[in-house]
Design goal:
globular, 9 helices, mainly alpha
Length: 173
């Protein structure tokens, strides 16, 4: 483990407040294992980060971490790091949560663009994870569907969008 990973583990085990500058250092300089722990820390102890990070800062971190896991499908062995499919499902759940907040539309649009870029650059296994791990579940939400509607008219993206939309509609909220 790296020094940063150990730092985050110590902070997670503690109860004291964490300066925002320390959080920012962890998300910028940390490897995947460190960032996975920061992801867990923000889920479990968000209120301990002082002052609280801006919504855009936290959302950018979450998107980058989850998409990296979705695309890279890290090997198992670290209980904190999401597998590719776990990251896809978590990303979809997060997008559905964000869709309930009108102020989050720019964040959802950014994540949709990032997923599009990842899909275009991906091999077939990664495309499958994006489609079945993230897109299918994200498209369960009527509000999220709008951000991926453009996929239906692009020949490459439509390969994933059609089946994912079918799934999403059959499991709709």
């Amino acid at each position: 483990m790296t020094d940063l990973t150990n730092e985050v583990d110590s902070a997670r085990a503690g109860t004291s407040d964490i300066p925002r500058t320390q959080y920012q250092r962890w998300i910028r300089a940390g490897d995947l294992s460190t960032r996975a722990r920061v992801y867990a820390f923000t889920r479990d102890a968000w209120s301990r980060i002082k002052p609280a990070p801006e919504m855009s800062e936290q959302c950018m971190f979450m998107a980058e971490y989850l998409i990296e896991c979705l695309v890279s499908n890290p090997p198992q062995g670290d209980d904190f790091v999401h597998s590719g499919f776990e990251a896809g499902y978590e990303l979809a759940a997060w997008l559905k949560h964000l869709a309930k907040n009108a102020e989050a539309s720019s964040i959802i649009a950014d994540v949709a663009r990032r997923l599009e870029a990842a899909y275009r650059a991906a091999d077939s296994d990664t495309r499958n994870r994006i489609e079945t791990g993230a897109l299918e579940h994200a498209l369960e939400s009527r509000k999220v569907r709008a951000f991926f509607a453009g996929w239906s008219t692009d020949p490459l993206l439509a390969e994933a969008h059609g089946p994912a939309l079918k799934w999403g509609l059959s499991h709709s909220d």
